[in-house]
Amino acid sequence: MSAAPLVDILLATYNGAAFLAPQLDSLLAQTHANFRLIVSDDGSSDDTLAILRRYERIFEGRMLLLPPQPKGGGVIRNFERLMRASLDDGSAAWIAFCDQDDVWLPEKTARLLAAVQALEARVGTDAPCLAHSDLTVVDEQLQVISPSFAAFQRIEPAQVNARTLLSVNQVTGCATLINRALLELALPLPPDAVMHDWWLAVLSGSGARDYLPEPLMRYRQHGRNQIGARDRGLPSRLMRLARDGGGVLKRVRQLGRGTRAQAEALGRRLRDNGLDDGYVAEYLAWRGRGRLARLFTYRTYYVGPELDRLSRWLLWK
Question: Checking CA distances to 304, which of 5, 60, 70, 79 falls within 20 to 30 Å?
């Protein structure tokens, strides 16, 4: 039996047959070989399940395919099901998240695990810890669109903190590995969680987070991504506004309501677990002020391109 730490890799699938096999091959090529792949399918109607069953034999006992569930749960609940399966089993102390259409570099699991273990050495294994990395953005044929997801999105994950994560998520789930303490704190996912990875990110504010600027995976873009990467340069953004200005404004306002509700849920979760929610309470109090009162402090809470910051200040309540 391997002496290396066991990592659970959680893979959520739905009609992913077109790109699933290369992702599974990249998991098999991980230098950290002591992992268990837990898979939950959300009612696929293509060949996804057939591919998974074929790879079950190849993984030689390292894959657990959860019983199929009816279509309609969605990506957040699919990942929650996986998180619950890992927690209930209790074998792995570290958990990584995996999408069906990407390709991992061989060192991804090992590098992120080492980063989380370094955090635990500093703050203790009882503290929620999270590590995430940059990604290479690629097209359907794995041709590079951008060598850095962070640069492509005009974000700076190394600079964000617990306070700014309340408004802007810069933690990409498929590039993330967490410890068991964070998994326990995260479940159950509240109805107000905007996304599972964002919920994990804001919870890590009560423990420790580390960002690795090196791209550890190829983040495939194919037009059917649940989230995906979009060019956030000014020309592209002006073009989106010109094409669908009303839709853009609607989504910005929806995100404003969502971030506020998620922060309220975070405050409750922290209080219920005896953790400090002071910075969350301060943020919510600040969000409750009038627009003019927030004019000179919005950069404290809103990070990213100035156009994003201004739109949040103007449209969020």
Answer: 79
